[in-house]
Every structure is written in C-alpha cells, then in structure tokens.
Write a structure and sequence with these properties.
Blueprint lengths: L1 H8 L4 E4 L13 E2 L1 H9 L3 H4 L5 E3 L1 E6 L2 E7 L10 E3 L2 H12 L5 E4 L3 E8 L2 E9 L2 E6 L3 E3 L6 H5 L4 E3 L4 E9 L10 E4 L2 E7 L3 E9 L3 H7 L1 H11 L17 E4 L3 E3 L3 E2 L2 E3 L14 H20 L6 H28 L13 H8 L5 H8 L23
Parallel strand pairs: 1-7, 4-14, 11-20
Antiparallel strand pairs: 2-6, 3-6, 4-5, 8-9, 9-10, 12-18, 13-16, 13-17, 14-15, 15-16, 19-20
Helix pairs in contact: 1-4, 1-8, 8-9
Bound molecules: flavin-adenine dinucleotide (FAD).
The site of flavin-adenine dinucleotide (FAD) has 27 residues, from strand 8 and helix 8.
C-alpha cells in the first residue's frame, strides 16, 4: 500500500490488488515506528495521521526474572516523533489507502487475489487475479510482490528462499486489562520464556512464546496447563486467565525468518515480508516493509513514470535494503537463542544483558535506534507529481 501510495504520488499508474475484502486482521503487528512517522511527516500526513486513535510508547521496559528494566529510550531519536505509535494495522492501511485515492493514477481493488504471474519472453508482464466477477488479467511495466510471507509471486517466479530457521512459535490471545496492573511495556522474560503484553487500551494483546511445533503437546496437556504456564510468568493475570476458556481464542503464529536470495527477476520486484519474513522479535517487520517501499519509490519512481525498468534498476532496491534486513535477522536469530519457550534456569537473577541496561542507561539508545529507526533509515526522495493533492509536505 505504501509503495502504491508513493508511486502514484510520483505520477506512476498504480493498481493495488488485495485478496481480502477489508484490512481487518486481528493479532497482526500494529507498531508504527518513529521512522515511519518521519516518512509521514515528510509526506505532510503526520498531523492527520496522529488524529487516529493510537497509544504512544516512549520507552520499552521489560521485566526480567521479576526485575523491571528499561531497555530502549526513544527520547533522543533525531525524529519528529520520539515514540512508537500503536495503531491497529487496518486503521493504518485504511489511512494510507484513503490518502492514495487522492492521486488520479491510483486504484485499489479489494477481493482481488493474485493467482498467477503472466510472462512474455521470460519477463513478468502482469498478474492473473481471482475477482468476484471471475478471473482478470492485469498487465504492467512492473509487478511489485508485496504479498507477505506466503507470497504467490515469489513462488511462481521461482525465486529461491533461504530459511534461517526459527526455534519458536507464538500464541496470540486477548486478556482484559485492570487498573492496578503492574506498569510494563514489553512483557515478562523468565528463563528463556517470554510473555509479551501489548497495551491495546482496555485489553492486552498477549503473545506467549512456545517451542516450535509445541502447540499439539500443549493441547494434549490441556487449557489449565497453559493457564498455569502463563500465570507462572505473569502472576497478576490469575484473576482473568479464565477468559481463555476455549482454544479458538488462542491463535498460533508460526514464526519464520527467511529471505529471498534474489528479490527480483525481469518485471517483478519482491519487497516486505515477501522478500524477507521477519520474526516478531523486536516488532520491526512493518517498519522494514515500509522502508522497502520508500526505497522502491526513491529508486524507481521517476523511471517507472516513463516506462519499464531494467534488472539493474530492480537489483538496486535489493542492494539498498538487504543490509538492514540481514543485520536485523542476525539479531533476531541471537534473540531466539535466549528466548525459545524452553525453561533454561531458575531463580530471580537478572541476566547480564538487561543488567548492563540498568548500569549504563546510555546503552538504551542502541535498541531505540535499531527498533525505532532501523539500520539505514529511508527518507522520501521520490518526486511528487501532484503537489496540490499531497499533504502539507515537509511540514
Ligand atoms: C501475529 C503477528 C504479529 C506481528 N507483530 C508485529 C509487530 O508488533 N510489529 C511489526 O513491525 N511487525 C509485526 N509482525 C510482522 C508484520 O506484520 C509484517 O512484517 C508486515 O506486516 C509485513 O508487511 P507486508 O506488507 O510485507 O506483508 P503483509 O502485512 O503480510 O501484507 C501482505 C498483504 O498482501 C495480501 N495478499 C497476500 N497474498 C495475496 C494475493 N495472492 N493476492 C492479493 N493479495 C494478497 C494480504 O492479504 C495482505 O494484506 C507481526 C506479524 C504477525 C503475523
């Protein structure tokens, strides 16, 4: 959607195809990072955007074996917004879509599921989509595959995927919030286990890390055993854990970390989770996907306005974005070695890393930068073809 917005803004004819009838998906990431807010500011959309309901997280604080530890402090970031905005992904996408519709060259088709790529002379020339009116072909100078981690575009293009392996899965569920709940903003870490509690106003979106493929075993042990596992880490949840009275209220996220060896072939460019599925560790998947979109428009916007782009042009996008992806994925692999859903110790000793954050507060700037901005943050450089239709840019 963001690539569609930016390319339409640059005067390129864009059609965005979305297979669902809306963007309403529960238990998706809903973190809008300072870097994305900066992009909004550069596009003149920030004031309007911040009118949408959201919560602002200025510091990340975890509880390690019972000890509260501030981990990341966004207050020193060189950005307009020194916070992560928590906003449901559907609100964010609806906002970007509504802004993009102001550009005459933008079209969004919902309930259009891409089922195949179209080829001509070994070049991708378009896509075939299943629509409520039957199958329809869309031809274009470039197909941008932004269809997420189970992308049909990279499969059909036979782009090779490199799996880095993730030893965890995550269970997602909701639990109500109460006024006297202990303050935290990330979750509870306990000897290799993690209970993430994301504040969604009147409830917590709860993530519970389990060993990969461990759901069947959990189900055999039964719901009361899962309740006990959760309450052991977050004892204050005892009074409401009964809200999880059915497995249908618990959703499984199969965690993947992978990336395409080549993000493109002639006529096709893959970005976002399609090119690199991220672990939820650090909550940076949306940020990286958006940064890919900005880089794509920066590098290709002006050229696409006049026609097709070459393989060399497409490879520039991968060249620009692969380093941040590799770095963050390498860090996520390290996080998984420590937090893997298996008990790896006892007692209430504070591990060394969080201890360092307590001893040297200056260190909190490092995760703030990695999470808030990401390596190699992108800025909007693509031209605006419709200054009158854009927001108050640069304000
Ligand atoms: C449970 C969960 C929690 C997460 N938490 C966080 C978090 O807190 N912070 C964070 O930054 N990241 C988080 N992530 C990761 C984040 O959601 C992704 O990294 C990010 O959404 C990637 O964006 P994307 O646009 O590349 O792909 P997606 O968001 O997956 O979007 C792909 C879109 O393409 C559509 N689509 C798919 N196939 C087709 C098709 N064939 N035809 C047409 N349309 C199609 C899909 O419906 C979808 O709308 C989480 C992910 C999950 C699953």
């Amino acid at each position: 959607m963001m690539a569609g917005y930016l390319l339409a803004r640059a005067g390129v004819g864009v059609v965005v195809l979305e297979k669902h009838s809306d963007f309403f998906r529960d238990f998706r990431g809903d973190t809008i990072h300072p870097s994305t807010l900066e992009v909004m500011s550069e596009l003149g959309l920030l004031d309007e955007f911040l009118k949408l309901p959201h919560q602002e997280l200025r510091e990340i604080r975890g509880i390690f074996n019972g000890h509260p530890v501030p981990m990341a402090d966004f207050s020193r970031l060189p950005t307009h917004c020194k916070f992560i905005a928590f906003m449901p992904q559907w609100d964010f996408l609806n906002f970007v879509a509504s802004q993009a519709k102001r550009f005459p060259t933008f079209a969004l088709h919902m309930q259009h599921e891409v089922v195949d790529l179209l080829f001509g002379n070994d070049r991708v020339t378009g896509v075939r989509a299943k629509t409520p009116e039957g199958e329809r072909d869309f031809l274009g100078d470039l197909v941008i595959g932004a269809d997420g981690r189970n992308a049909i575009t990279h499969t059909q293009a036979q782009l090779e995927l490199q799996e880095l392996g993730a030893p965890i899965d995550v269970l997602w569920m909701r639990l109500s919030k109460r006024p006297n709940d202990p303050p935290q903003s990330l979750g509870f870490f306990q000897h290799g286990k993690l209970l993430a509690l994301l504040d969604r106003g009147d409830y917590f979106q709860v993530g519970f890390v389990i060993p990969k493929g461990g759901l069947d075993e959990l189900k055999q042990r039964g719901l009361p055993a899962l309740h006990r596992d959760i309450v052991e880490i977050g004892p204050f949840l005892q009074d409401r854990i009964g809200e999880l009275d059915d497995w249908s209220k618990i959703r499984l996220l199969t965690v993947q970390i992978n990336r395409l060896k080549k993000w493109c072939r002639d006529g096709l460019l893959c970005i976002g989770d399609n090119a690199h599925a991220m672990s939820p560790a650090g909550g940076v998947g949306i940020n990286l996907a958006l940064q890919d979109a900005v880089a794509t428009a920066n590098l290709l916007g002006a050229k696409l306005k006049t026609g097709p782009v070459s393989m060399t042009d497409l490879e520039l996008v991968q060249k620009r974005r692969e380093f941040p992806v590799r770095l963050i994925q390498a860090l996520q692999v390290q996080v998984h070695k420590r937090i893997n859903g298996r008990t790896s110790g006892t007692g209430d000793r504070l591990p060394l890393l969080p201890r360092l954050f307590l001893w040297f507060p200056v260190l909190r700037a490092i995760p703030a930068r990695l999470i808030g901005l990401g390596p190699r943050p992108e800025h909007v450089r693509s031209p605006s073809n419709w200054p009158e239709a854009s927001g108050r840019e640069g304000k």
